[in-house]
């Protein structure tokens, strides 16, 4: 991590302290911020040298409505990038573009260029299967398959042929569940349906399911939203561990979490990428006033 | 309240009955009778169910009523029945016009279609039917596979065919004929049972389908009613049976051996209570309907001779009921 | 996993790549199989449609003879136009006079008879109706358009097809017809009678209206009973009934009812409606009731499947808002399950519309020459009409059979369109 | 035909008009008027109940303090009014004719006696027909004219009476319910109980039907088993009703063996399912998962038309086009040297039947597949599954109960189909597994036995009932198995 | 609120700081904690005088598996009670008992006594409809109806007859959406499907939907899990406002949030209610060692 535990923690504490008093002004302040965002261009360092994925001029539309506006961004090799921003600003939409999950929404249209290791992701001739095997995704709403817990985790390795023998598979399942911090809770009920788990357990199951495939890039949409601090810590530890070999994009609402786990942070507002910078910088001296307003808990 | 005549029964008589019903309905103040095609036996079952508005007034039949049916009628209070013989129907054996016309005898038919036939190598014993081609049956016939499409055992046409053609054929073997007096059941078993090894194909009750199947398969013969031959002369041709071809005249004068009488039966208890029964009877037995040149003959009914028409019409007018068979 | 000697271990991308070709191929095959399956269905439909239309299109046109007719009071035997005299008048006589005028050379009883047989026997009735509508015609000469006999019609149509069917018409008669055709007196025209009249023993006069209305009345009864009852039963079973042996039994029973041959439903109808309730035979109401019993399982099964497919979270959301069970069902489950239920209705009603066997038992396989006016009038239905015509000896019924099938399909498509339109509106993915 | 009898054909409305009683205009209180009246009253009572609850509510501080919504109070009052009235009208419609007829008959002169009910019925019919002008009154006994007038008057009065009764009852009971309305009245719960009862009633209809079916075949089946030993029927290998055609012959034990029929059913239904299940399922998958929305909107209804084409059409198609083609192909391949090749074949019937039942599977499956939440698909797609993998491994298992429902319906239809089999596979009961040979099915035999020329109590006819019963039991058993199999593999989403 | 903003914030900061270093011990530490929990009895003050809802000896089973063990708890009138505890400890299960939502899960069985204003909630004769109208619920996974946004919010008022006129309904919808902080974002698309919203928007929609009925007791299962800090603040503000008239039980994983919004806090572990106390006390001087371990981010 770029930023020391200490500092980020302090920072967050400050933020927490400043948050409450300003709430009353938010409504109008937010409107002002929204107006500003509409004309904003990205500040900071959206581009990097060793880009694993790079996006150029990405626009996303739901029907007539545009949800993401001309985003340029690189995600570096073995980097953890956090995406933050107010609810509904287009984080999930943008994240889902990276492995073409938006294909499944009929009215959703993506424009611009997205590439993975130089490979054009939106090439119409591209096979999305290896793409999605390389770019895995944890969805915002946990969506376990109505199958057993074991089968949920084994599903990815099975379809991609990652395990030769049953024992290998067992191992993959166990390790994945362990890394997601779920193993202890479910080891006795591996063959019961994944849909009978608690909210947080389902979320961890979905994480385990995704990492079982060992994708090169992992997209996580609020992976810890239903988790308690301990489980969250476990997942953050996992992220740190994974980032040694893999590239991770994580959407989170917890700025503390962003600060803890990410190297760079991207701030979105109303579908526009406002600022990208080193996490440390974003949380200490943001370049853009909107970013500052957001991380300090006010607008305008 | 029921204000129209209800007629049930034979599918063979159905076309004739409905012509009369329609003309009757259009020409008089009465409603057209409702004519149902239920099969002869099914018709009698309903007809003999009882007296009352829920039971039909008339039943068509492609055979005479059986004693058992009559008894059932009596048991249910249907005591007075008027029987009306209306004409004949020929059962034809035909094949596609694309094939050669066949000259068959009833004996040939029996040998070709019976389940058990007299041992070809002589003796008064019966063996499972060994014949594969018509030539095996009779050397004068062509060497084509025996393939006959006919009605299922549940059909009145089948009954008639078996009784008229098969029985006629098997009676030509004296030892079988002898059963007729000694062991009637045995006689019927031998003569009536058709082979089930695929040479005789039960094709359902739709005669048009048989015609079409013959058209598609020139090797096959089919058994069906005369009206279908009459209407499909461009597609199928009748075979000679015992030297005569089925035509109006040969059937009417009995030269063609495979023909059967057609009837209908009237419930006397309903006359006068259900409107129009008498008038309907009058229409049916009028010369313009069932006469030699009447509209029923257009439809393929083979008329009775003039004298019988006259006597029957008189009996109908007097509503003479059927005393016994 | 990358915990130990990750150098040896192939990466996911490599592993994926290994089997990718196979998976792609299988994906391709799968999709093609889907395409092929749809194609099979569509092609079968096309073949059947071309056959039906090819056979039946002819029935929509019919030969008519245009000729001069004199309403000659002498021949008619009328002095004035009133009901009694109309009923007794000899309209066939004036038709014959008209025909004789066209062919004055015809002599001899037999030949004349043949000549007269050009006109359908319904021609006289048509003239009677004309005169009844306009009594002033008595004594007038008018030119009229009359139906010709089915044999003539068949011959005329077969001439156009290039393969004349001559067997039922004599040489001399053919000459006359050819002459009429040449002069334009005999020509094909749209067959309105087919759509406006009931069944007839004469093909040229036989129409489909009686059976069409019969089907309409029957299906009105069926549709208005089986859909609500089926949906209600499905709701009860899915939402109210507790899982128990009894509900298992009911479920199995309903599935089983779907497998009961339809003719057995006819037996049931015979026993209950005719024998027990003493309802008359050949009645659309009874037919509708029997078909209701027959289609119920189809609708129940598909409705249950549709209800099962509604995600539990929707139910939870509704209940959590304080909706009662009935509100949850009526306001959330039902709208979401409606497409599936409508599919059941579409299929069930299609089946009911095409069914003959059970109606056999309750007297709807009948010749009924009058157009029914309500659900209690004797009537037959389209498939029965088709069945009866298909079994008729007259050649001219062949094309009418196919035409009737076309009418049935048109009826089916019209009936389904509403349901399909509704279903499309209600469909959504969540 | 005599001239006198030829009254005018199109003047059916000219009815005799000799009435002694004063009667209201005909049809004044006919069913439609009554229905409209009842509906209007019901609506009025609903509105009244609803507004009373609103009034009551103002007394206690607003609708919040009512036990239920005003709607339910209205509904409850309306139910109170309409349900008993409906029962009354139904009972009345069933029995009024009988009561009136009884009165009319009882007022006939004493010397008119009936031997049995059917004569009485005929006499009544005559009276009705005279009333409607279908029979001339001149030919009938004079006292009938009085009966006709009496009948007419009674009918009119009865209609009026029932209308008055119904109105009174609706007003009375509806009023009572209206009066009962108070904030504590558990109107919603009561309405919902009625709702649930109605639902229960509807689902028990299925049970009643089953009972009815069993009852209508059981008696005759027992009689059949009286004549033919049940073991011969169950295990006999030969089905040949022609040998038992006659009453005078002891039913040949070997000729009522149901095994070939069941084998034939299995063969044909099996072939049909081999066609329909893959095609139907794949079509459903293609339409719901791959095809463009517009394509689906057109193709799905088109496929559904397949289920509505009358079976006669399929029958002709199978018999005249498919069957000869199959035979010719088989013969040209020389298959006839090894096995029976006939122009009636199970294969032809099965293939065509398979096409007919495609929509049962395709449409129902399509609906349930469509109902699987998108998030499940997303889950699998996000892991890099191909579409076909998602469908096969996630969507289909989740949609399984519905799909099985469709398949069951299709199997059922295949078992129940007759026309195609009769026309294309023949009627010969052969015990064979050769699809090129002709076979027949249970249902076909039932139908031919039932509608053919028959004596009503020969074993031949009774066999139809026994077959029906057997089929019923066999399918019941199969359905039990299916139920448990589905339960086992069912995957409940969310 | 019982606890001052300042203090809670500091506390949380501390917690955050201490969290990371202890993570490595968690696995075994957690096992130890779990064992302890199995024999724990509730400490603190589970009962209050002016109880709005009170639970006694509540056991919940999923099939054979017990998920909640003999919980005794009171929720006071106009009180905000927070429920915290590790993922899978039974918080949602317990919460769902309070308005009998567990009835919908076939295998779920509830034992013990639960009463609302003295009314036995599990009385078999009780009509659950008014109960659920009085005790509203926001589910853990946002589950909007597949209907328009407007209809989603209007649904409750409609079925409970809270609005006479269209205009009244419009007002209810607008106010509810405004209070949930969603109005600005959706006011132009009120008649588009609620399922087409972003994760956080859906969550706020579900909150709006619930408060539109103004239930006496509101159960919220992680209502802010998908929300950014600003939206969260808005919801917290809403909770504070609602608590003046209503009673609220909130499940949350964010201890900061619990500290900010609640008067009392209940800590669950492995299906057992370990400790209930004033929020301030729980977060400063917890009575039970497990509670302390949890809020300080370690176990044992
Ligand atoms: N439908 C179910 N069937 C079987 N077990 C269940 C079901 N729902 C929950 N459980 C189990 O019950 C226990 C408690 O679950 P619950 O959902 O109450 O946890 P929770 O405290 O809400 O956790 P989270 O914070 O992760 O949402 C867990 O072990 C879970 O696996
Ligand atoms: N399927 C959809 N159809 C139409 N609009 C959509 C759809 N999904 C999202 N949107 C809209 O697009 C915008 C961006 O949504 P997105 O889900 O990307 O937000 P987000 O940043 O992930 O928010 P959150 O933090 O609440 O999850 C929102 O205004 C949302 O309402
Ligand atoms: Mg999102
Ligand atoms: Mg939970
Ligand atoms: O219907 P039939 O009895 O004449 O075969």
Automatic annotation (TrEMBL), chains A, E:
<dbReference type="Pfam" id="PF00005">
    <property type="entry name" value="ABC_tran"/>
</dbReference>
<keyword id="KW-0547">Nucleotide-binding</keyword>
<dbReference type="GO" id="GO:0016020">
    <property type="term" value="C:membrane"/>
</dbReference>
<keyword id="KW-0592">Phosphate transport</keyword>
<keyword id="KW-0067">ATP-binding</keyword>
<feature type="domain" description="ABC transporter">
    <location>
        <begin position="53"/>
        <end position="295"/>
    </location>
</feature>
<keyword id="KW-0813">Transport</keyword>
<dbReference type="InterPro" id="IPR003439">
    <property type="entry name" value="ABC_transporter-like_ATP-bd"/>
</dbReference>
<dbReference type="InterPro" id="IPR005670">
    <property type="entry name" value="PstB-like"/>
</dbReference>
<dbReference type="InterPro" id="IPR017871">
    <property type="entry name" value="ABC_transporter-like_CS"/>
</dbReference>
<dbReference type="GO" id="GO:0005524">
    <property type="term" value="F:ATP binding"/>
</dbReference>
<dbReference type="GO" id="GO:0016887">
    <property type="term" value="F:ATP hydrolysis activity"/>
</dbReference>
<dbReference type="GO" id="GO:0035435">
    <property type="term" value="P:phosphate ion transmembrane transport"/>
</dbReference>
<dbReference type="GO" id="GO:0005315">
    <property type="term" value="F:phosphate transmembrane transporter activity"/>
</dbReference>
<protein>
    <submittedName>
        <fullName>Phosphate ABC transporter, ATP-binding protein</fullName>
        <ecNumber>3.6.3.27</ecNumber>
    </submittedName>
</protein>
Automatic annotation (TrEMBL), chain C:
<feature type="transmembrane region" description="Helical">
    <location>
        <begin position="257"/>
        <end position="277"/>
    </location>
</feature>
<protein>
    <recommendedName>
        <fullName>Phosphate transport system permease protein PstA</fullName>
    </recommendedName>
</protein>
<dbReference type="GO" id="GO:0005315">
    <property type="term" value="F:phosphate transmembrane transporter activity"/>
</dbReference>
<comment type="similarity">
    <text>Belongs to the binding-protein-dependent transport system permease family. CysTW subfamily.</text>
</comment>
<feature type="transmembrane region" description="Helical">
    <location>
        <begin position="33"/>
        <end position="54"/>
    </location>
</feature>
<feature type="transmembrane region" description="Helical">
    <location>
        <begin position="328"/>
        <end position="353"/>
    </location>
</feature>
<feature type="transmembrane region" description="Helical">
    <location>
        <begin position="403"/>
        <end position="422"/>
    </location>
</feature>
<keyword id="KW-1003">Cell membrane</keyword>
<dbReference type="InterPro" id="IPR005672">
    <property type="entry name" value="Phosphate_PstA"/>
</dbReference>
<keyword id="KW-0812">Transmembrane</keyword>
<dbReference type="GO" id="GO:0035435">
    <property type="term" value="P:phosphate ion transmembrane transport"/>
</dbReference>
<keyword id="KW-0813">Transport</keyword>
<dbReference type="InterPro" id="IPR024573">
    <property type="entry name" value="DUF3333"/>
</dbReference>
<dbReference type="Pfam" id="PF00528">
    <property type="entry name" value="BPD_transp_1"/>
</dbReference>
<keyword id="KW-0472">Membrane</keyword>
From TrEMBL, chain D:
<feature type="transmembrane region" description="Helical">
    <location>
        <begin position="462"/>
        <end position="483"/>
    </location>
</feature>
<feature type="transmembrane region" description="Helical">
    <location>
        <begin position="346"/>
        <end position="369"/>
    </location>
</feature>
<feature type="transmembrane region" description="Helical">
    <location>
        <begin position="390"/>
        <end position="411"/>
    </location>
</feature>
<feature type="transmembrane region" description="Helical">
    <location>
        <begin position="160"/>
        <end position="181"/>
    </location>
</feature>
<feature type="transmembrane region" description="Helical">
    <location>
        <begin position="70"/>
        <end position="92"/>
    </location>
</feature>
<protein>
    <recommendedName>
        <fullName>Phosphate transport system permease protein</fullName>
    </recommendedName>
</protein>
<dbReference type="GO" id="GO:0005886">
    <property type="term" value="C:plasma membrane"/>
</dbReference>
<feature type="transmembrane region" description="Helical">
    <location>
        <begin position="261"/>
        <end position="281"/>
    </location>
</feature>
<dbReference type="GO" id="GO:0005315">
    <property type="term" value="F:phosphate transmembrane transporter activity"/>
</dbReference>
<feature type="domain" description="ABC transmembrane type-1">
    <location>
        <begin position="262"/>
        <end position="482"/>
    </location>
</feature>
<dbReference type="InterPro" id="IPR011864">
    <property type="entry name" value="Phosphate_PstC"/>
</dbReference>
<dbReference type="InterPro" id="IPR000515">
    <property type="entry name" value="MetI-like"/>
</dbReference>
<comment type="function">
    <text>Part of the binding-protein-dependent transport system for phosphate; probably responsible for the translocation of the substrate across the membrane.</text>
</comment>
<keyword id="KW-0472">Membrane</keyword>
<dbReference type="Pfam" id="PF00528">
    <property type="entry name" value="BPD_transp_1"/>
</dbReference>
């Amino acid at each position: 991590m770029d930023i020391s535990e200490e500092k980020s923690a302090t920072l967050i504490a400050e933020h927490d302290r400043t948050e409450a008093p300003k709430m009353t002004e938010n409504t109008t302040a937010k409107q002002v911020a929204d107006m500003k965002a509409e004309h904003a261009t990205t500040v900071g360092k959206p581009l990097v040298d060793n880009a694993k994925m790079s996006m150029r001029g990405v626009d996303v539309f739901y029907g007539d409505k545009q949800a993401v506006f001309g985003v340029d961004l690189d995600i570096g090799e073995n980097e953890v990038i956090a995406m933050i921003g107010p609810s509904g600003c287009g984080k999930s939409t943008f994240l889902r573009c990276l492995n073409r999950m938006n294909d499944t929404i009929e009215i959703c249209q993506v424009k611009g260029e997205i590439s993975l290791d130089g490979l054009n992701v939106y090439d119409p001739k591209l096979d999305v299967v290896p793409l999605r095997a390389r770019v895995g995704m944890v969805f915002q709403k946990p969506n376990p398959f109505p199958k057993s817990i074991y089968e949920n985790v084994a599903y990815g390795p099975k379809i991609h042929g990652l395990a030769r023998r049953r024992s290998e598979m067992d191992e993959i399942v166990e390790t994945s569940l362990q890394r997601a911090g779920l193993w202890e809770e479910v080891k006795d009920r591996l063959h019961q349906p994944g849909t009978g788990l608690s909210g947080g357990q389902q979320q961890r199951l979905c994480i385990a399911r995704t990492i079982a495939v060992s994708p090169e890039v992992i997209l996580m949409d609020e992976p810890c939203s239903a988790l308690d601090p301990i489980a969250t810590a476990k997942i953050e530890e996992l992220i740190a561990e994974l980032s040694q070999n893999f590239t991770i994009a994580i959407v989170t609402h917890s700025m503390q979490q962003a600060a803890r786990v990410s190297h760079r942070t991207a701030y979105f507002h109303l579908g526009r990428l406002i600022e990208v910078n080193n996490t440390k910088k974003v949380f200490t001296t943001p370049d853009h006033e909107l970013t500052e307003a957001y991380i300090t808990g006010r607008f305008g | 309240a029921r204000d129209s005549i209800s007629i049930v029964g034979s599918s063979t008589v159905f076309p004739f009955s409905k012509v009369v019903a329609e003309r009757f309905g259009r020409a008089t103040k009465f409603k057209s009778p409702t004519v149902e095609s239920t099969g002869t036996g099914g018709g009698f079952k309903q007809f003999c169910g009882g007296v009352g508005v829920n039971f039909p007034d008339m039943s068509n039949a492609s055979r005479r009523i059986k004693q058992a049916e009559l008894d059932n009628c009596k048991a249910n209070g249907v005591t007075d029945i008027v029987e009306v013989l209306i004409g004949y129907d020929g059962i034809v054996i035909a094949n596609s016009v694309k094939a050669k016309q066949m000259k068959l005898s009833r004996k040939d038919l029996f040998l070709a279609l019976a389940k058990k036939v007299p041992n070809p190598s002589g003796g008064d014993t019966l063996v499972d039917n060994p014949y594969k081609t018509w030539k095996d049956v009779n050397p004068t016939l062509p060497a084509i596979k025996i393939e006959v499409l006919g009605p299922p055992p549940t059909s009145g046409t089948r009954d008639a065919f078996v009784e008229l053609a098969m029985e006629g054929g098997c009676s030509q073997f004296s030892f079988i004929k002898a059963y007729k007096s000694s062991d009637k059941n045995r006689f019927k078993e031998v003569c009536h049972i058709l082979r089930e090894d695929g040479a005789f194909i039960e094709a359902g009750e739709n005669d048009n389908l048989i015609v079409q199947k013959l058209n598609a398969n020139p090797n096959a013969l089919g058994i069906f009613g005369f009206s279908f031959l009459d209407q499909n002369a461009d597609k199928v041709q009748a075979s000679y049976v015992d030297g005569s071809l089925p035509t109006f005249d040969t059937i009417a004068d009995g030269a063609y051996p495979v023909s059967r009488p057609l009837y209908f039966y009237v419930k006397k208890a309903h006359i006068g209570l259900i409107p129009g029964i008498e008038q309907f009877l009058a229409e049916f037995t009028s010369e313009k309907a069932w006469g030699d040149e009447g509209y029923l003959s257009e439809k393929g009914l083979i008329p009775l001779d003039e004298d019988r028409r006259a006597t029957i019409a008189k009996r109908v007018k007097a509503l003479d009921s059927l005393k016994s068979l | 996993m990358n915990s130990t000697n990750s150098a040896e271990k192939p990466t996911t991308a490599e592993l994926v790549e290994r089997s990718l070709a196979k998976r792609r191929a299988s994906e391709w095959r799968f999709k093609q199989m889907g395409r092929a399956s749809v194609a099979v269905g569509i092609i079968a439909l096309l073949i059947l449609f071309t056959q039906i239309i090819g056979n039946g299109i002819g029935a929509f046109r019919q030969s008519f003879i245009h000729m001069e007719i004199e309403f000659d009071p002498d021949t008619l035997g009328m002095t004035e136009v009133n009901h009694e005299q109309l009923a007794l008048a000899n309209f066939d006589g004036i038709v014959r006079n008209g025909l004789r005028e066209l062919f004055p050379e015809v002599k001899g009883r037999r030949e004349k008879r043949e000549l007269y047989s050009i006109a359908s026997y319904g021609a006289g009735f048509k003239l009677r109706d004309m005169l009844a509508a306009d009594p002033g015609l008595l004594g007038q000469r008018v030119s009229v358009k009359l139906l010709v006999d089915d044999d003539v019609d068949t011959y005329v149509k077969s001439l156009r097809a290039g393969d004349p069917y001559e067997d039922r018409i004599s040489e001399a008669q053919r000459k006359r017809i050819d002459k009429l055709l040449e002069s334009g007196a005999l020509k094909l025209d749209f067959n309105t009678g087919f759509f406006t009249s009931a069944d007839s023993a004469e093909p040229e006069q036989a129409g489909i209206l009686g059976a069409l209305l019969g089907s309409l009345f029957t299906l009105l009864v069926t549709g208005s009973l089986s859909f609500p009852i089926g949906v209600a039963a499905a709701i009860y079973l899915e939402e109210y009934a507790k899982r128990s042996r009894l509900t298992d039994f009911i479920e199995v029973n309903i599935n089983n009812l779907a497998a009961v041959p339809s003719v057995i439903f006819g037996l049931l109808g015979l026993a209950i409606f005719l024998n027990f309730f003493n309802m008359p035979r050949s009645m659309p109401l009874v037919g509708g009731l029997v078909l209701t019993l027959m289609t119920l399982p189809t609708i129940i099964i598909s409705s249950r499947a549709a209800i099962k497919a509604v995600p539990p979270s929707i139910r939870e959301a509704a209940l959590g808002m304080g909706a009662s069970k009935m509100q949850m069902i009526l306001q959330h489950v039902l709208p979401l399950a409606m497409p599936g239920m409508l599919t059941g209705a579409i299929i069930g009603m299609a089946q009911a519309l095409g069914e003959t066997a059970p109606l056999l038992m309750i007297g709807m396989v009948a010749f009924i020459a009058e157009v029914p006016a309500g659900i209690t009038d004797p009537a037959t239905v389209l498939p029965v009409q088709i069945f009866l015509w298909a079994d008729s000896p007259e050649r001219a019924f062949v094309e009418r059979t196919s035409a009737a099938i076309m009418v049935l399909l048109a009826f089916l498509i019209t009936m389904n369109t509403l349901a399909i339109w509704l279903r499309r509106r209600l469909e959504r993915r969540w | 035909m005599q001239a006198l009898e030829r009254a005018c054909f199109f003047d059916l409305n000219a009815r005799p008009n000799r009435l002694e009683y004063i009667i209201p205009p005909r049809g004044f209180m006919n069913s439609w008027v009554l229905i409209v009246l009842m509906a209007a009253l019901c609506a009025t009572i609903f509105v009244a109940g609803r507004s009373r609850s609103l009034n009551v509510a103002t007394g206690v501080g607003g609708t919040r303090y009512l036990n239920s919504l005003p709607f339910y109070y209205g509904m409850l009052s309306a139910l109170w009014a309409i349900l008993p009235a409906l029962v009354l009208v139904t009972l009345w419609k069933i029995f009024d004719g009988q009561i009136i007829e009884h009165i009319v008959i009882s007022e006939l002169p004493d010397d008119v006696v009936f031997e049995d009910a059917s004569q009485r019925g005929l006499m009544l019919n005559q009276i009705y027909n005279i009333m409607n002008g279908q029979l001339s009154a001149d030919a009938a006994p004079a006292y009938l004219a009085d009966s006709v007038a009496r009948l007419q008057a009674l009918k009119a009065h009865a209609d009026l009476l029932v209308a008055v009764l119904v109105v009174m009852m609706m007003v009375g009971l509806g009023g009572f319910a209206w009066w009962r309305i108070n904030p504590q009245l558990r109107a919603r719960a009561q309405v919902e109980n009625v709702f649930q009862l109605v639902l229960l009633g509807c689902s028990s209809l299925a049970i009643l039907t089953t009972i009815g079916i069993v009852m209508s075949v059981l008696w005759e089946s027992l009689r059949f088993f009286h004549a033919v030993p049940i073991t011969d029927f169950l295990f006999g290998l030969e089905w040949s009703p022609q040998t038992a055609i006659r009453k005078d012959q002891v039913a040949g034990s070997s000729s009522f063996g149901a095994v070939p029929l069941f084998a034939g059913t299995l063969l044909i239904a099996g072939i049909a399912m081999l066609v329909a299940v893959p095609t139907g399922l794949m079509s459903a998958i293609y339409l719901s998962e791959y095809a463009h929305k517009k394509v689906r909107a057109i193709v799905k209804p088109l496929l559904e038309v397949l289920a509505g084409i009358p079976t006669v059409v399929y029958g002709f198609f199978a018999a005249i086009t498919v069957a000869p083609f199959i035979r010719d192909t088989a013969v040209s391949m020389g298959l006839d040297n090894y096995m029976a090749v006939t122009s009636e074949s199970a294969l032809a019937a099965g293939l065509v039947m398979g096409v007919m039942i495609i929509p049962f599977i395709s449409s129902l499956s399509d609906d349930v597949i469509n109902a699987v939440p998108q998030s499940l698909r997303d889950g699998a797609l996000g892991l890099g599954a191909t579409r076909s993998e998602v469908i096969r491994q996630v969507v289909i298992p989740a949609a399984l109960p519905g799909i099985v429902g469709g398949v069951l319906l299709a199997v059922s239809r295949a078992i129940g189909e007759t026309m195609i089999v009769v026309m294309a596979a023949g009627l010969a009961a052969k015990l064979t597994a050769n699809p090129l040979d002709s076979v027949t099915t249970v249902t076909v035999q039932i139908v031919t036995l039932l509608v053919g020329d028959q004596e009503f109590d020969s074993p031949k006819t009774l066999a139809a009932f026994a077959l029906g019963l057997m089929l019923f039991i066999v399918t019941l058993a199969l359905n039990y198995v299916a139920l448990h199999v589905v339960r086992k593999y069912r995957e409940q989403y969310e």
